[in-house]
Amino acid sequence: MSPDSPLSRIGDPLVRAATTAPKVMSRVRGGLARAAIRAVGGSCGRRLRIEKGLRVRQGWHSGIDLGDDVYLGRDTTIDCPRGGRLVIGSRATLTQGVFVSAVAEVFIGDDALIGEYCSVRDAAHGTALDGIPMRAQPMEPDRISIAADVWLGRGVAVVAGAQIGAGAVIGANSVVLGDIPSNAIAAGAPARVKRLREGR
């Protein structure tokens, strides 16, 4: 087809519409969620974007605090019961399939990058061998902190009590059990520091 043909001129706006519509809808979903969060006493900054498939298992409530320009990717799950606290800083990005459970408190700092299919859970079921099934035992929570400018690679699991310092990088499929210092590059199960980030 010639670039000057009538069909070509019609096609260009259609292509633009097809590529911009998902962005528009993510902002529409974000605007509706922002209104809902604020209506129940939570906090939500400007320009929240939400892709399809978001699940908020316990509903929005006053323990939710989202900064400006937060991005929640496709099929994100937020499980934050009332009494729990979830803070997601400005410009943080949660990509596809991320699961965040905040029974006590999960803090995700500004500019954090959470790769696809990461799991961030601040509690686990009790494991006492006392005749009670583990699924029925009380949850044992411990605060998680993921500081500013942290990058979690694909499939990272961050478990109760983990503290990840600012600027750290966690390799794909790692399991973070304890403390990772600022600007460290860590990987493995459990995640161990491999080296520190350097300037260019």
Layout of strands and helices, then pairs:
Layout: H1 6-39, E1 43-44, E2 49-50, E3 55-56, E4 64-66, E5 71-72, E6 77-79, E7 85-88, E8 93-94, E9 99-101, E10 105-108, E11 113-114, E12 119-121, E13 123-125, E14 139-141, E15 144-146, E16 151-152, E17 157-158, E18 163-164, E19 169-170, E20 175-176, E21 179-180, E22 184-187, E23 192-196
Parallel strand pairs: 1-4, 2-5, 3-6, 4-7, 5-8, 6-9, 7-10, 8-11, 9-12, 10-15, 11-16, 12-17, 15-18, 16-19, 17-20, 18-21, 19-22
Antiparallel strand pairs: 13-14, 22-23
Description:
- The chain has 200 residues and is α/β, with parallel strands linked by helices.
- The chain has a single domain (6-196), classed as Hexapeptide repeat proteins (UDP N-Acetylglucosamine Acyltransferase, domain 1, 3 Solenoid), CATH 2.160.10.
- It is built from one helix and 23 strands.
- An eight-stranded mixed β-sheet has the order 2-5-8-11-16-19-22-23.
- A hairpin with a 4-residue loop joins β22 (184-187) and β23 (192-196).
- It is globular and about 55 Å long.
- The termini are far apart.
> Could you tell me the mean pLDDT?
92
* Radius of gyration using CA atoms only: 20 Å
Q: Give the name of the CATH architecture.
A: 3 Solenoid
Q: What is the number of helices?
A: 1
Strand order of the largest sheet: 2-5-8-11-16-19-22-23
β content, as a range? 25-35%
- Helix/strand class: alpha/beta
Largest sheet, in brief, is:
8 strands, mixed
Poorly predicted sequence stretches spanning 5 or more consecutive residues: none
Residues in helices, as a percent range? 10-25%
CATH superfamily: Hexapeptide repeat proteins
Return the CATH class.
Mainly Beta
